[in-house]
Specification:
The protein is of the alpha/beta class. The chain folds into two domains: about 140 residues, NAD(P)-binding Rossmann-like Domain (Rossmann fold, 3-Layer(aba) Sandwich), CATH 3.40.50; about 180 residues, Dihydrodipicolinate Reductase, domain 2 (2-Layer Sandwich). Helices cover about 35% and strands about 25% of the residues. It has ten helices and 15 strands. The strands form two sheets. Strands 14-13-12-11-7-10-9-8-15 form a nine-stranded mixed sheet. The chain has a six-stranded parallel sheet with strand order 3-2-1-4-5-6, with helices on both faces. The termini are far apart.
């Protein structure tokens, strides 16, 4: 079994989950970490006993054995670093959201198509316990006709020296950082949205940090996605999913710590309700979704195929949808995507 040499570019908060995933897998080893802040790169590298850098190009030059790059960088520079990794022929797992604009998302698609690198956006919810079960139940028709779906993702403001996240141009706040997960998962269930209508408010950062987005899909399904970065001190990072169908209703609630890295002791409950039957608590498999995601990506790299659980076309469509949600909030109008 080949052991893949994995490099981390960006040693911010979410890199901890990716490094843990590398350490969890027998066929992966962290061989280099880069961050423009030397102290952050050094602290992360010391924990896994690998070299650190402050320049990604220098890292790629000096550690040529790298097979895979994981990008845990500010959103607005994703296209620059996907392009850099592609220049060196490295398989690339890039944190969500894909980019801040449709134009930059299309740039990534063009680079991947031109160079042929194996690429995936880290839309980790597609690998998350509870959500995977909902996807399987949907595939098997257990819900019947879908009346409505509701997805929510709320927390305190996620601050760790990441001012870029709370800038409407570079990070976009909760609308781009949090809502993107649920828009992606709804697209995973129903396909691309036909239209969106958004009710949202901006916080003092001038980002949309409280959002309700209503979406209609071509198959007739309708859904609402909620996000907030304005919950007050002590409110746990909480994800909720509800599917209301003609045959069954499902409710999933996941509650962690202050941020998504604090998953030890998280509460995760999936319940299924049917007419005339006792409510059922589904025994969901317990595992680390970041490890599951990386294992899948490395398998794709091993087989030399592009991922099909999360495709690049789907990731671009998510950015098109988020862009429409933002424009709907700006104009207080329905935005049609097709």
């Amino acid at each position: 079994m080949k052991t893949y040499a994995v490099a981390i570019i960006g040693a911010g908060m979410i890199s901890k989950s990716h490094i843990a995933a590398i350490n969890n897998l027998p066929n992966a080893k962290c061989v280099a970490i880069t961050d423009i802040i030397h102290e952050k790169a050094q602290a992360a590298a010391q924990k896994v006993n690998c070299p650190c850098f402050t320049d990604a190009k220098e890292m790629l030059e000096k550690v040529p054995e790298i097979d895979v790059c994981i990008l845990s960088l500010p959103t607005y520079i994703h296209s620059d670093y996907v392009s850099l990794c592609a220049e060196y022929g490295k398989a690339t797992l890039c944190e969500k959201p894909l980019e801040m604009t449709v134009e930059k998302a299309e740039r990534i698609r063009s680079v991947v198509q031109k160079t042929g690198i194996i690429y995936m956006t880290a839309q980790v919810v597609r690998f998350w316990t509870g959500y995977r079960e909902i996807k399987e139940m949907m595939k098997n028709g257990e819900f019947g006709d879908i009346y409505m779906s509701y997805f929510s993702r709320c927390s305190e403001p996620q601050k760790w020296g990441n001012d870029w996240l709370f800038d409407p141009v570079t990070g976009g706040g909760a609308m781009y950082d949090m809502l993107v997960h649920d828009i992606d998962f709804m697209n995973y269930l129903y396909g691309p949205a036909e239209s969106v209508y958004t009710v949202a408010t901006k916080s003092d950062t001038n980002c949309y940090n409280n959002v309700f987005a209503s979406l209609i899909y071509s198959g007739g399904a309708k859904g609402v996605a909620e996000t907030s970065f304005t919950m007050k001190t002590g409110y746990p990072f909480t994800m909720t999913a509800k599917i209301m169908g003609s045959k069954a209703t499902a409710e999933y609630i996941y509650s962690a710590g202050y941020d998504i890295n604090q998953r030890n002791g998280a509460i995760a409950v999936l319940k299924l309700f049917r007419d005339g039957k006792t409510p059922e608590i589904i025994n969901v498999e317990q595992y680390d979704a970041y490890t599951k995601q990386l294992a899948y990506f490395l398998d794709c790299v091993d087989r030399g195929v592009q991922p099909d659980i999360v495709t690049l076309d789907q990731s671009v469509e998510v950015i098109r949808t988020i862009d429409a949600i933002r424009r709907s909030a700006d104009t207080n109008s329905i935005i049609r995507l097709r």
